[in-house]
Every structure is written in structure tokens, then in C-alpha cells.
Amino acid sequence: GATALIPEVGRRKYSESGKQTPERSESFLHDFELRLLTMFGLRRRPTPSKQAVVPQYMVDLYRMHSANGDHSAKRPKSMGRHAERAASKANTIRSFHHEESMEALSRLKGKTTQQFFFNLTSIPDEELITSAELRVYRDQVMGAATPPPNATTNSTNGSAAGGVHRINIYEIFGAPQGREPLARLLDTRLVRDSLSRWESFDVSPAVSQWTSGRGRNHGFMVEVHHPQEEGGEERAGRSGHVRVSRSLDRDSWPQARPLLVTYGHDGRGGDSVLHAREKR
Amino acid sequence: QAALRKQRRKHHQHKASCKRHALYVDFSDVGWNEWIVAPPGYHAFYCQGECPFPLADHLNSTNHAIVQTLVNSVNSNIPRACCVPTDLSPISLLYLDEYEKVILKNYQDMVVEGCGCR
């Protein structure tokens, strides 16, 4: 039931110490509380609910970068190279889930399109975002054969070793009423649906513009082109390979839903999250 | 004799030179474990001890601290130099903010690496 960062025991001890008048005690405690909140970039004490989700990726990043954690922790396999470079310069890494109430899903023959909006207003003005990645999870399609070790993901011969999907990531920069959103391509990738893994896409240009105020945040559009059989029919079960919708599997959704990760620096101190570890 | 030895040891500890001491900050003690995901606590250390005249080299003093200690030796109204952290290092914290957003952040000056007389 604590409502402040200063523990109640400490607060009471100071108030009852008689060193200050009650008014001055309250004033000093208030200033100290503000100092603590500012230190953590908070406006009030967090009171997370039991439903609060901590993405495993953030835990992995903590273990990898932490100066006080397990130094043998390796770089997460699904971490993009651009993200690794960004993390070496950042002292603040944030993760965001999209606003489900604002998602828009459309499914046409051979293509699934999903719009995601991420609320980034909690990023303080003084924090400079240098990089951002959009992480999308894809589930192995049941019945798809595991590709041989020397298979490449951009092989179009999907019949023997799973289908090939193309994932396009767009920034939505305009949303005219009643019409298709205006979008520009940020990143694209061919993937094979015989594997389960996270895909990391570089969305730095869009997020940097939004957080610096040079562009308005209309969100992203994720477009997945599914493999087609001969004759144009979509292969059964392939459309669920890329996890863009809760309806596919509710239980795993909290940890499998798309994740936006930002890398930034608030200008306080020179050490990045990674360099702090090297100093120790 | 045992009592005398114990008394001398206590006196010695009270007069121990400025140095770093162990301190583990457990976030559950201050009620922060609800919103700090990792770590559960950390080794912060603290500085305590005397800065006696004459100051030894290993006490990592500034010129001012040396001069102040010298003046203290002839005028006890001027206090001795204080044993304080002289080198600090950061730690990373993984926590939830008030909107339940997850943040991994590096915090400067959280761990005492060295103490000295200043």
C-alpha cells in the first residue's frame, strides 16, 4: 500500500526525530521524494498490476548489458545487428506493446495486413532516441519440414522445406478518412515458416522523427505475404505463421505480441548500458 | 586480558582508517521490489573511517584535504577531512514505470569503488 518511494518507516523516523518542525520535515521529505522520482524519470510511484508483462527480450538485454548481472550472458540470437550497435551507445532502453484498441487487421487472399499504434508519450523530451527495432514473432507452421542446414531463407523452393513469407514493415505517415493509409516501406524480409523465432526490423527513421517532434505518430503497418500453391490458392495454415493477432493463440499472446524497443540517451553521464559493464 | 583485547579491538575499529565497507542494498527493504524487476538488490558499499594526521598516500586525498588535516592538527576547531566516495560506478536497473512500461536504464554513481579523504 506504499504510495511514495521513501519507505514509510524512514519517513516516520525522520518526522519523529524532532530535528525539524513538522512543516519543514514535510517539506524536506517532499523534496527528497521528488528527487527520487526525477532520478527514475517517474511522476509517481509505480504500482504494477499482476497483469504487467515484462518481455523476455528485455530481461535478456538486462542480463547481457548489466554491469551487476551475469557477465557470461550472450547476445540474444534474435537481436538485430543495428540494435546491438544502438545498445552500445544508449543508456536507456524502453519496450512498448501496441494499443490493441487501435489495431486494424485485414486479411486478403495471400496477404495479411495489420496496423499497430505504439504510444510513445512516456518517452521524456530530453531523451534522444538513436535507434528503434520492431520485433515480430513467427511460429513454426505445423507440418512444415525443417530446412537442411545449408538452406537459405530467400529460397523460393518452399515445397520441400516449408513456405516462404515476405514481411514488409511500413511507417504510416498519413491516414486520410475512408481511404487506405499512406505508408512508406521501412524494412522487408523473406522468411521461412519452418522456424519459430523473433524477427527484428529497423524502424529507427520513423521513431526518431516521432519522438523528436518532426513527424506525427500514425503507427506501423505490418504486411505479410503468404506462400501460394499453384493456381493461386493459399497454403492451408500458413497465414498464422507471423504473430500479428491475439486471436491466433491467446495464451502465448502476452509474450509473443509485437514489441517496439527504443534505444536512447538522456544526456546524464557518459556511460552507455553496455559500457558500464566494461568499466567494472 | 581477553576483555582488554576486546576493548582494544573495539577502540581500533572505531579509529580505523578511511576505507570501503560492505553494504548490500536489498530493494525489498525499501519497498521497491514491486516495480524493480532486476536486480533484487546490489552491492553499493559505503565509506567510513578516520582521516588522521598525517594523511597516508593511499587515502586518496586532495591538496585541500591535506591542508585541512594539517590545520586540524594545530587547531581542533577546524574539522578533519571526511571519508567519502572518490570513485563510483553505475549499475543497470530493469523496472516498470507508472504506465507499466518496461525500462532498462543505466544509473551513474550507484556503487562505491573507492574511498578517500576529502
Summarize the structure in words.
The complex is a heterodimer of chains A (280) and B (118). Chain A has 280 residues and is α+β, with helices and mostly antiparallel strands. Chain A has 7 helices and 9 strands; from the N terminus they run H-H-H-H-E-E-E-E-E-E-E-H-E-H-E-H. In chain A, strand 5 and strand 6 (182-192) form a beta hairpin. Residues 144-161 and 275-280 of chain A have low confidence and may be disordered. Helices cover 21% and strands 38% of the residues of chain B. Chain B is built from 2 helices and 7 strands. The A-B interface holds A 2, 5, 7-8, 10, 39-49, 52, 54-55, 58-59, 61-62, 65-69, 91-96, 122, 268-269, 271-273, 276-277, 279-280 and B 29-32, 34-35, 37-39, 42-43, 89-92, 94-109, 111. Strand 1 (92-97) of chain A pairs antiparallel with strand 7 of chain B, so a sheet runs across the interface.
Keywords summarizing the entry:
A: 280 residues; 5-stranded antiparallel sheet; 9 strands; 23% helix; B: 118 residues; alpha+beta; 3-stranded antiparallel sheet
The secondary-structure class of chain B comes to: alpha+beta
- Work out the helix count of chain B: 2
The order of strands across the largest sheet of chain A is 2-3-8-5-6
Could you give a short account of the major beta sheet of chain A?
5 strands, antiparallel
Helix-strand string of chain B: HEEEEEHEE
Helix content of chain A: 10-25%
Distance between the termini of chain A: 36 Å
Uncertain segments of chain B are none
What does the radius of gyration of chain B come to?
19 Å
- What is the number of E strands of chain A? 9
Strand order of the largest sheet of chain B: 3-6-7
Work out the number of β strands of chain B: 7
Taking all Cα atoms into account, the compactness measure Rg of chain A is 23 Å
Shape of chain A: elongated
Order of helices and strands of chain A: HHHHEEEEEEEHEHEH
Strand content of chain A: 15-25%
What class do helices, strands and sheet pairing of chain A give?
alpha+beta
